[in-house]
Design a protein that fits this description.
229 residues, Rossmann fold, putative n-type atp pyrophosphatase, domain 2, 2 domains, 5-stranded parallel sheet, 4-stranded antiparallel sheet, 6 helices
């Protein structure tokens, strides 16, 4: 099937593309909704403008739209408009997304797709967290943590590329502090800088870190595709 991907630049939406392609689907466009603020319950916020580099590196065109409200119903209207644009321009059959456990998100996306006569595909659905995180690293997905907002996750994780050894530590912290190891509850958000889908990795030239004692953000200020790598 020809699919659009609801794309945030994080590990889940990027890996969902990887799995969809392995299943024989053709991911023909990326759909990115810029939320009004980080208060959104439906949309990913940090470093979204740099998804344009991922789009170029994957050679998958990107359609973007901005939401002027954090209200879920309004965000869904904006998403519907973007999906309709993708259907008109790319003749898509369905939508792939990186949902893992959130029934709320999954049901919203399924309802939206049904309305537009599209198939909703969630290849990561119900994956076991530790197995999934190891699978990401084993599949040469290089991603860094760009926000943290949970007990047990401190400033040292901001901007850190997750390695195999980090997964063991994160698993221990997850057990101790009760956060989701795959971060789907918003405990952390990620940004992929390289993976098998990319023609070139992303080089971060400049960044800022903000930490308030409990939550923090790694903000990419300047980045480019590393065409020499």
């Amino acid at each position: 099937m020809k699919l659009a991907c609801l794309f945030s630049g994080g590990k889940d939406s990027t890996y969902a593309i990887h799995l969809a392609k392995q299943q024989g689907h053709d991911v023909v466009c990326l759909l990115s909704v810029f939320p009004k603020s980080d208060e959104s319950h439906l949309l990913h916020h940090p470093n979204l403008k740099w998804t344009k580099l991922q789009s170029v590196s994957m050679k998958i065109p990107q359609l973007i739209i901005s939401s002027n409200s954090d209200e879920i119903d309004n965000e869904l209207i904006v998403m519907e408009k973007l999906l309709q644009n993708a259907k008109d321009e790319f003749k898509i059959d369905g939508l792939v997304h990186g949902g893992i456990k959130s029934k709320f998100q999954k049901e919203k996306f399924e309802t939206l797709c049904k309305k537009l006569n599209l198939v909703s595909i969630a290849p990561l659905w119900n994956t076991e967290p530790k197995q999934y995180m190891n699978e990401l690293v084993n599949s040469n997905f290089h991603f860094l943590m760009v926000t943290v907002s949970s007990d047990g996750l401190d400033e040292q994780w901001l901007g850190k590329i997750i390695l195999k050894s980090d997964i063991e530590l994160l698993s221990t912290l997850s057990d101790k502090f009760g956060f989701n190891l795959n971060f789907e509850g918003g405990e952390a958000e990620t940004f992929v800088i390289d993976c098998p889908l990319f023609s070139h990795p992303i080089k971060i030239n400049q960044f800022t870190k903000n930490w308030d004692g409990y939550r923090g953000r790694f903000e990419i200020v300047d980045a480019e595709l590393n065409c020499n790598a």
